[in-house]
Amino acid sequence: MNTLTEKNTKEKFLEIFKNYKSLKTSLNEEGLDALKKLDFPDNKNEDWKYTRTHKIARNTYQIIKGKNADVDDWLTDNSLVFINGFYNPQQSSANHLYKSFLINNPKNTAYFKPDKNIFTALNAGYYTDGLYLINSPHNHKKITVIHYNSDNALANIHHYIHIQKNTQAEIEFIFLSDENINLTNIVTQIKLEENAKLTLNILQNEKPHTSQINLIHVHQQANSEFNITTCSLGGELTRNNLNIYADGQNCTSNLNGIYITNNQQHIDNHTLIDHLMPNCQSNETYKGVMSGKSTGVFNGKVYVRPNAQKINAYQSNANILLSDDASINTKPELEIYADDVKCSHGSTTGQLDEEALFYLRARGIGEQQAKKILVHAFVAEVTQQINDESFRTQIQNLIDKKLSAL
Amino acid sequence: MIHIKNLRAGIDGKEILKGINLQVNAGEVHAIMGPNGSGKSTLSSVLAGRESYEIISGEVFFNGKDLLAMSPEDRAREGLFLAFQYPVEIPGVSNINFLKTALNEIRAYKGMEPLPAKEFLNLVKEKSALVELDSKLANRSVNEGFSGGEKKRNEIFQMAMLQPKLAILDETDSGLDIDALRIVANGVNKLRSKDNAIIVITHYQRLLEYIVPDFVHVLYNGKIVKTGNKNLALELEEKGYDWIKESEKV
Predict the structure, then answer these.
(1) Quick check: A369 contacting B, CB < 8 Å?
(2) pLDDT value at position B248?
(3) Which of A96, A295, A310, B187 has the most CB atoms around its CB within 10 Å?
């Protein structure tokens, strides 16, 4: 009976794609193939146990090109705008950088397979657009990619970012939405060649009824450096999957995240750093501040393969719960098959330091302001690592705004 | 300045202050001495507004206003200052930004504009010199990695910056060597004026050699059992607290 219901849900969900004109790329085929075997995860699925997607599965979305979006605050002189999963050249200032993932049809990045879960399969089967970005050695300017979702849209976006040997790039992803029930289902494949460097800053700041399933798949070659900071502030349900394959010696991977939640929000960060080769380092710091009835998940996998000696892997997840009803499930998963490695992990969950709060108030600082100061101090370990000052300031201002509303 | 009337307070259902009466006027320095567990720190915590303490009965008027009805921040904005016995380390919050926020919130409460950055920095320079606090410490996180002496000097530095009407120094002498004690006391003395008042809470007479009080009160078992002038402190130093305890039993 249950199976039947689930099938109906899935079939009903897939109806929105009935007018989809597939380009029949190999990725489309892989996705559609995988989709036959996959279903929406239930709570028996360990990987999705705390992230209930049944609400998403039962929503009715549409595939629809949006009108010009309200993104003016975020536009730069080097930005690319996607509305409901379609590129919008009118609002983009960096049209010269836009090459469509639809037309350029690269081979999958190493270790990328779209059959891990239904969302990735959906994305592969039905993506509507995305960037095909090969970094030019002459472009040193930060690229801002704005994703705006509106009108009950399901946006299936698939980006492909390739940082060539000896080059570097700085990219930011901004996610925004209108007040409707929208879903962003985005996959980003990233390939870093030898001695390449990419800094990717992400801001998820959608309105309260928009959900997002986000997969970032990274393949790193020798001597490459990948830095990512994910700041999750808005949205209803946000699931971030970040998979990094350090597949060359001397790779550096820095994974940082901040999530500030309230009301009924759910934010889930699943990260994987797979050390396939020796002499690499990874540093991971995720910090959460949760209030209302919000829920969170942090799951940090670190794999060290048998021959990957001399690995330095650090992981930490710290949380502050500002209300009695907020909760976080945090789980480190370390699988280490090499013997000469340094791996550490730590996880803490607590409240704001009452003594510190009193100290600030006893000097004349109002309670709200004192809490803000302490929250900023708590997340500073992550914000201070954001080198891009304008992005850091934007994040700090948004955190302030969010805390003011509590 | 402050008028405490029959104040009874406690924590976790246990009564610690059992009827405190004390009046402190502008220009005065009062010392409150007493053995461990007599209620000295409870008194300072209750006056500063620490929420874990329960008020059982009594009243406290601060410049004519009901102090106990105010939030901790409003007490500070009205001019009350507590120099903490154990100043908290707050990693990630810069000492300077913290003080700037505090000073400007107090000014806003009084309807004043924020202090211009340059004037603020001049004030920092002037006041940190008062307690011989290395200006580098001002830029570090609040009390983080400070030595015991630096933490106490930082408290007096904050007092100098915020210019309170009433300062309560809660065992500011504890953990200080003689040089640090002298520096802290000098700082406090320079801040004394006919318009403000100071309550010095201490276990030992030592600090009172430097900050000479107008009145000395002995707190014992939640009550002020004896009041005198500075000579009372010397008498306590000589005879110890047992003398008070004995006379209480009689």
Answers:
(1) yes
(2) 65
(3) B187
